Give the backbone structure.
Amino acid sequence: MIFDLFRHKQLITLGQRDIHNHLLPGVDDGFKTPEDSIRAIEKMVQHGVKQIVFTPHMNPDVYPNESEAHFREVFDKFQPQVNDILPPPLKGTEGVLSLAAEYMVVNNFEKRVAEHADELLTYPDGSILIEMSYFFRSRNFEDAIFELNMAGLRPIIAHPERYLYMVDSLSDYDRWIDMGARLQMNYLSLTGQYGEASMKILRHLLSHGMYSFVATDLHSNAQLDRILTSKVDSKLLSQLPKGD
Ligand SMILES: [Fe+2]
């Protein structure tokens, strides 16, 4: 469409707090080494990021031997290494780095929530990041939202625009928000790289003010470079949630 040629585009700017990324090295499909991760963190800080919450994948179907205790151990070891490269006033400041996790809503996840909510890695305010597969919907997704709320943990749904099978069920996002969930968009989704269905979901959620957070969901330095160099539709950027 000729109109698109004149549509204004601009660079993405990162928010001050990144609540979703795979920067904790060596535990999932994200950053492999502390050096790679530190390189990304340095660049993020140069671009104005002041707080980073690490959210490694917790998915027993893919990483059956992973545990919250192991994530904590890796985080405790990695945190001082990151602190070394932080500039003042971030260096040594409480809360600049913290640990949560991205929980895949697998079968029986809601039972784990009901029985062992205290084991789960949450954000400092008690919110918790959850996701579904990109290929199929979790049958127990609403049960999980319900049980998390019952346990006092407020769910944040990771990248709803990446669940392409939801494109004809957009009203379900309203229901999940009504149930107490909040939505988190990925910066890279703005570039259109996940296809037309993803853009349709994203435009719907943005134009209705349904996102509460935007995050990098960073898995590599290449992705960070893509976020920082992609020009995207200014109108979409103007609809991002504020204050995040
Ligand atoms: Fe993620």
User: Anything to note?
Assistant: The chain has a mean pLDDT of 96. The chain has one domain: 2-238.
